[in-house]
Amino acid sequence: MAKKSDFSAFEWKLLKDSPYWVQTAITAAEGRMGMVEKRREAKALTAYLEGYKSSDGVVRDVLAAQDGKHEVDPKTPLEKVGETLEQISTVVEAKGGSKGLDAFNEFLTGAADAIAGAAGENMLKKADKISDEEEEALDLIGRALRATDADKSKRAAAEAAAHRAELKKRQAEAKKAADAAKKAELEKKLAEMEKKAKEAEAEAKKREALAKKQAEIREARRKRLEEARKKAAAAKAASQQKAAAEAAAAEAAAAAAARKYVVQPGDTLSHIALQFYGNANDWRKIHEANKDVIKNPGMIYPGQEFTIPE
Question: Taking the model in full, what pTM does it have?
């Protein structure tokens, strides 16, 4: 809502004197008037200004500024009055918008009604006895202030269009803000996902390093076990070889010991060969092995010790 401080000194002077410009328009249209009529109209305007109430800030400030003084020349031509009223309308709309202009126009047209009524005629309601001159003033005020129904309709349409444009702008801003919020939320989620991915990668590397270390430990253990097994196997083989050698030696010794035979009474080489070889005809083996002892194969003696060959 506009107020006095929104206007320049020149603009405010126009607004403060605006009721008197309306009065001058009516006076100019009526031509020369007697002192009685002029006083009646002046008194009607004063009463109107003192009793008028408005919720519009500019109108209230204009009413508060009224002190009975003004700089409007009552002899100003009607055309000049119209131009001034147009200027007032433009100034009010520029600072107060269409609503401010409608409120100010209502204030000024009400003043015109009060002035015209003082002379027994209502200009804006077009009483039956309105003269052509007054009709001209009425049209002039309506056009200058843009207070006609057509003007109000245009302003309402323009205001609706402005509201619609503002709504679209706000919707676009809201959408942009929403998109920005969504983008920020998405970026936040992506950052969280990236963080989790990095953490997972770090954990994977950690586990990979641990697995590698464990594999190295297992491999070292396997090698140690393999080496131990090899050593054990080698030791076992050596032990087995030694045992086998010892067994073979013992067996050989036993065999050697077992192949010694002491002749018993009644023995013959054939009898001994049959005992050891299972064939009496193998007596020659025994004879060949014991030639140093056996002088005559047919004559052996108890107590002689023979070597029995394989």
Answer: 0.50
